[in-house]
Amino acid sequence: MQRGAVSHSAKVASVFQRLLTLVMLAVLMVAPQTSFAQQTSLGSLSEQLAQAEADIRSVDRSLDGRADATTQKQLRSKALAAQQASADAVRQLGEQLALIEARVAGLGSATEGTQEDPVIRQQRATLAQQRSAIDAAIKRGGLAGVEAAQLIAEIDRGQVEEFSQAVSTRVASPLTPSFWRAVIDSTPRDVRRVALFWSQGFDQIRTVWRGGIPWQALLGALLALVLLFPARVYARQFGRRYLIEGAPGHRLRRSGSAIWRVLTGTLAPTLAAAAFFQGLRWAGLLPERWGGLFDAATVAAGFAGFTASVTGAVLMRGQSSWRIASMDDDTAGRLRPLSWILALLSGVSIMWTAFNTNVGASHAAVVATETVQALLHLMLIAAFLIVLGRLRVARADDPDAGSRSTTAGLGIVTLALWLLLLVAFVALLVGYVGLTLFIAQFVAWTTVLGSALYLSLAAADDVATTIFSRDSQFGGVMTRALGIRGSMVAQFGLLLSGVLRIALVLIALGMWMTPFGTGGAIGSIFGRLGTLAQGVEIGGVSISPGAILRGIVVLVIGLGLVRAFMGWLEGRYLPVTDLDGSGRNSVSLIARYVGIALAAIWALASLGIGVERVALLLSALSVGIGFGLQAITQNFVSGLILLAERPIKIGDLIRVGTDEGDVKRISVRSTEIELADHSTLIVPNSELITKTVLNKTLGDNHGRIQIQFSVPLLTDPQLVRRIVLDAIGAESSVLEKPAPAVFIDGLNDGRVLFNCLAHVNSPRDVYRARSNILMTLLGRFREEHIALGTVPADVLPAAAEPPEAVVRTPFITQS
Prior knowledge:
- GO terms for molecular function: mechanosensitive monoatomic ion channel activity.
- It comes from Sphingomonas aliaeris.
- It is found in: Cell membrane.
- It is a multi-pass membrane protein.
- The structure is a single chain.
- By secondary structure, this protein is α+β, with helices and mostly antiparallel strands.
- It folds into five domains: about 40-110 and about 115-170, Methane Monooxygenase Hydroxylase, Chain G, domain 1, CATH 1.20.58; about 180-430 and about 440-455, no CATH class; about 530-625, Helix Hairpins, CATH 1.10.287; about 640-695, SH3 type barrels (Roll), CATH 2.30.30; about 705-815, Alpha-Beta Plaits (2-Layer Sandwich).
- It is about 70% helix and about 10% strand.
- The protein has 23 helices and eleven strands.
- The protein has a five-stranded antiparallel β-sheet. The chain has a four-stranded antiparallel β-sheet with strand order 9-10-8-11, with helices on one face. A two-stranded antiparallel ribbon has the order 1-2.
- The longest helix is centred in the first third of the chain and has 51 residues, at about 120-170.
- The protein is extended, with a radius of gyration of 40 Å.
- The N and C termini lie far apart (about 90 Å).
């Protein structure tokens, strides 16, 4: 139990060290690799392999004894380094072997019955000897890599077993007298151990200190105070002032301020603690036995500072204009004290565990301290949920408090936390102290890591989309210098943002269970869920409740990922492209169906049903599809053709048979058309592919007005032309280009036949504009006493039938 507790808090503390080196690791990952013109000699590579083999044997011998969590971590790192060294040596040896093989191939094979030149024979023997030596070294490296992988797997299994034992060990309940009797019985011995720990340290201090002024310790303390207070405050103010003056855009300034606040809030206490303890070491006032405790104090100070700064950067109490999260000042103000308590509790937990380890506290004392830590964590979680519940109740009647989806999601998370809190509290009362402490620390670590991930995602998105924007300075340079369209620059920024955010999520997932050493344990636990119920095996596929549940979970996760991707695609990426609404709809539909198909394939693969089995099933169903689902398949294929070729787009005005309306939606099965009476006509896609469809807005969105009439032969045609052009010009919706035109079609039965044309922005404006023009023409012709007549049908071109609402006059033909 004591070892489990030590591994929990010790690994929590080690995560902070990983966070401090995360930036350095990122730089190393993106730094260009140095290429050497000269190859490493075979002797150097052999020495490298020999050292890797020696390290592997050393790790193997160390695992024969009992190793604590810290030692296991060191051994794992050593085995991993040996594995990487052997793999690097094997890679270089493989390159050298390929060169030798090429030289051997160039020499060719010896011809039988002929005397080969001695030089060639000597080269052939030398190459054969080198090839044999390199091949043997490659086999040694491969064997060393396999042994290292086995040792790493053994260490991982040991950590998993240690974690499982820690969370499954049951002790006496804190409510029983036996629990407190064990604590009381071990108290005298623990008091003596603590007294010995402090007395040995003070004795060493008195021995070293000769009465002089410990200026090194004083200098370290002064430096710690400077770093902790004025330097931290000045650095934060300097960063904010620089962001205000130099950072482009509010979003980038906001996210940059949050990240800078986390860096200063983390580095300041870490460096302050390191400076203080280093001053004590230089002055000789740091006892050797206290070294581990003070190292833990440095980590505790840094982790507490990181917790306080990252939660403070999310809340930004009193600074709503710099806040990334969408919350009000009241919520931030109420949650901020809890974040300080969480930071303090995290640092105290690390120090507490380190003190027990260095003092050598008894098992009863360790269990008691774990119980107190777990209880404090549970009380903090309960306080957070109570504050959150009060905030929700206070804003229940506020329509602007938030969307229903956000409220529902927050309610689900709150309910899950209450249930988890109840389970942890019951486990603590029963005696599963290790399990309770794990749950409490896991919730706290999830909160801290989730806050850091939230800030990192926002910062990555803001940086990528601000730098690679069509309106940014860099985007302008790319557009002018390289001729790249602004939309392409914006699209690249969004894609880069997506890649960075996915990488951050993967890193966070990798660190999620790392502090507790339970990454393998959790995977092992979920991996064993399928064995709870064996089920039956059909056709090589195991069908069991566990497998079905696993498939459902995988399908839900897949559909959730598809939904998140579609939200990003439709809400972020497609709006910055040059595609119109119909093109966006086509891309969105295809991406949605492809995503759903991939999610279904993933779910089937989790059940053990591979793609080949799905193909076999589809081939078996092909006959049924050919007969029973022929119409559905035809519509589906027609829908894909419509989405690909786009002869009909969303927003087009089309006529199908006698029905005319606007295209509102195109799916893979049918197309929805909104008619003039606001009803919806659902047309199967096969009808739009195999039959004649009139698309009035496919090539040109302009609409044409055509008015035909006749006047007596003696009427002045110029006067008629002027009246018609004035009437057309009085209509505001008529376009200047193409210009209106008045033509004389011919003479018939003593009358002059006129054909008048004009254009408007859309075919939807033709009906109203033509009606207005006709109203004006009728009035003007009556004023000029011009008698209108009908146009003989034999001289008119075929025209489309007007809507039923138009009433034909006996002397005007309209189209």
